[in-house]
Structure formats: structure tokens, C-alpha cells
Amino acid sequence: MKSIPQSARLKWLEEAGILIEALPYMRRYSGQTVVVKFGGNAMGADAYIRRFAENMVLLRQIGAKPVVVHGGGPQIGDMLDRIGIKSEFKSGLRISDADTVAVAEMVLSGTINKSLVSAIIDAGAGAVGISGKDADLIRAQRLKGGLGFVGAPKAINGAVIDALLNAHLIPVIAPIARGAEGETLNINADTVSGALAGALGASRLLLLSDVPGIMDKNGNVIPELSVAKARKLIKDGTISGGMIPKVETCIDAVESGAEAAVILDGRESHAVLVELFTEHGIGTLIKSSKKSG
Asked: What 3-state DSSP class applies to 16?
């Protein structure tokens, strides 16, 4: 019989210990809805997508109910460049004429959505790709300010997501929806994920970003904030720039029904699992002022 090296034994013991430490947190999220916003430049990397899909499958297998919302800004920009359509931004949002929103829908609901669905299926779970148009999941309103066909969620049909989750499927949602007149609207993926988390009463909203979390003025990650404290940090300038809309999304989600929201670095290996299944997590958690004191 072949002997097992001591180094391998120690590694297995360490891995077993990690599983035991994670067990209470796995129980905590069993049966709970977790909305995860997936996006950024790394979405184009096969290894990144595969690792994310494995994380979602593990959540499903321990009894949690993951709901994925994805972006795709860089991929939309690449396609627009390839076909010669110029795009501009205003207040961080892409100004979308009829041609631009058609490309956005093609990229988001087509290429990106189906690649994520395929990755999750390959990793071992059932997944269904939809957009906010399907089954009237998201009713949107058109934003003012000369943005064209850009919208914000007005109403969420949570029964659609509940039906998929109850069928043990992972919903993968593209942030495209119908407006009041049936027009196609492109919506910021962070905003969609926050609206869904609130409407579904999610245990967690996870915004995977390209920063470790909310930083204090010394450059250190703030592990936890109440809604009131988050608003104070926006007011005094500690939270600034592109972090402001992300924090406001978290606040809106918490105030509309989600238990808590987390901004974390999605580039970290298995960031979702580390955040949910360890004592301190790795991002910044925002929760109700009433619960935080």
C-alpha cells in the first residue's frame, strides 16, 4: 500500500478544519436568498467566470438561494467600438440611443448571460438566464437628463424569481427591462441587484467590485457600517466618487427589505465564500441603523 506523505495529511487536516469552522455559517445561509452582482473587467477571463460559477453552485448545494445579476459595460463598449458606434457617459451612465441600447441588449442578454449560465451548469447546478423583460420581472422608468434609453427599476415581480428558486434553479439576470411604453431600457446592474435584494428580502446583497470595500481616510477597509454612519461618511467626503452610487445602492436595498449588503473585492479568490462563511468576511457590510446601534 502506497504511503501518504505527511505534508498531504497535514493539508487534508487543515482543509477539514476549515470545513468545520464554516459549518455554522453554512447553516446560517441555508434557505436564505443571496443576491450577487457580478461584473467588471475580469468577467472576460474564463478562470474568473469558472471560479465564480463554482461559488454559486456551492451556495446552492448547501441550501442557499443565490440570485445572480450581471453587468457587462466593458463588453458593450468593445462591441460598440467594433461596429463603429460612439458612446458617451454622463454621471457614470452610458448615454444610450436606440442603436446603443440594441447592442447592450444583445451583449447582456445574449453573450454574457448565456456564458454565465453555461459556466454554472458546467460547475454542477441548474441555471436559467433571463432579463428584466422576461415574465415582466422588472418594470422600469426612463431616467431624465438626456440619457436616452437608460432606466431605473420601478417595480419587481419577485414571484418570478421565487418560482425559479423553488425549482432549485439559479436565476442569472441581465439588467435590461421594459419601460412604461414597452421600450427597451438599459439599467445599471448595481441598481438592479439592489432593487431585487430589497424586493426578495434577501439575507445578503453582495456587490462584487474591484476594491476591497469602503476605505477610511487612512486607507483601511471599514468592516461594518450602519446606514446612518454610511450616510455620514458620504457627507464628510470619506466615501466619494464612484463608491457613492454603490453605497447608495446598498442603503436602498437595506431600507427596502434586505437584511444587509456588502461591498467586496470580486477579484479575490472565492470572495463570496470567504465573505459568507468566515467570522469577519472580507468586505464592508452595511446594515440597518436599528440593528447596528
From this structure: helix
Percent of the chain residues topping a pLDDT of 70: 92
186: nearest Cα among 213, 143, 149, 214: 149
Q: Mean pLDDT check: name the lowest of 34-38, 43-47, 209-213, 259-263.
A: 43-47
| Residues paired with residue 94 on neighbouring β-strands, in sequence order | 89
Question: What is the domain extent for residue 286?
Answer: 204-293
Residues 193 and 210 in one domain: no
Last residue of a domain, one of 162, 186, 202: 202
Mean pLDDT value of segment 81-108:
89
Q: Does 52 map to a domain? A: yes
Contact assessment for residue 103 and residue 83, using Cβ atoms and an 8 Å cutoff: yes
71 plus 55 within the same structural domain: yes
Q: What is the DSSP letter of 211?
A: S
Count the domains in the chain.
2
- Give this prediction's pTM: 0.91
Q: How far apart are CA 141 and CA 151, in angstroms?
A: 5
- The CA angle 159-164-170, to the nearest 5 degrees, is 130
Question: What is the per-residue burial (b if ≥16 Cβ within 10 Å, else e) of 24-38?
Answer: ebbeebeebbbbbbb
Q: Are residues 220 and 152 in the same domain?
A: no
